[in-house]
Amino acid sequence: MHIYVDADACPVKAEAVRVALRHDLRITFVSNSWMRLEDHPLVERVVVGEGADAADDWIAEHVGAFDLVVTADILLAARCLKAGAQCISPTGKPFTEANIGSAVAMRDLQRHLRETGESRGFNAAFTPRDRSRFLEAMEHAVQAAKRATG
């Protein structure tokens, strides 16, 4: 099992590292620019070229079955689910085969509403409760992957 983090705007990098190290798992942070991370042999940093989907494409090309992806990007989550990975958002919401279709549809609807001026695209603030939900969801995902892989 490997953990991949879509890292550019991820607010839970330290929490993801903490869970990965507790379980002795490799974790790779993929971003468009260099960022300071914990110096540990299991923590890897990949800096991809500039481009809207460069980090997403890198993760989608490397992810496999039983891996875990942390991302807020619904389209990346859909790609990773097709590869057999588990996906969770930084707020702890799991993306699953059962909910990814409606998540993509809602994303498209919200984009349309922003483009037509019907919505300004409000994003809720990241809260301590979101951080707590993320830690719980990540722990649950790691435990599920460990059970699945024996």
Structure summary:
This protein is of the alpha/beta class.
Explain the overall architecture:
By secondary structure, the protein is α/β, with parallel strands linked by helices. It has one domain: Rossmann fold (3-Layer(aba) Sandwich), CATH 3.40.50. The protein is 44% helix and 16% strand. The chain is built from five helices and six strands. It has helices at 13-22, 54-62, 74-82, 100-115, 128-149, and strands at 2-6, 26-31, 43-47, 68-70, 86-88, 94-95. The protein has a six-stranded mixed beta sheet, sandwiched between helices. Strand 1 (2-6), helix 1 (13-22) and strand 2 form a beta-alpha-beta unit. Helix 1 packs parallel to helix 5 (128-149) and helix 3 (74-82) runs antiparallel to helix 4 (100-115). The longest helix is centred in the C-terminal third of the chain and has 22 residues, at 128-149. The N and C termini lie close together (11 Å). The model has no long low-confidence stretch (mean pLDDT 88).
What brief labels describe this structure?
6 strands, alpha/beta, 150 residues, single chain, Rossmann fold
List the helices and strands and how they pair.
Blueprint: E1 2-6, H1 13-22, E2 26-31, E3 43-47, H2 54-62, E4 68-70, H3 74-82, E5 86-88, E6 94-95, H4 100-115, H5 128-149
Parallel strand pairs: 1-2, 1-4, 2-3, 4-5
Antiparallel strand pairs: 5-6
Helix pairs in contact: 1-5, 3-4
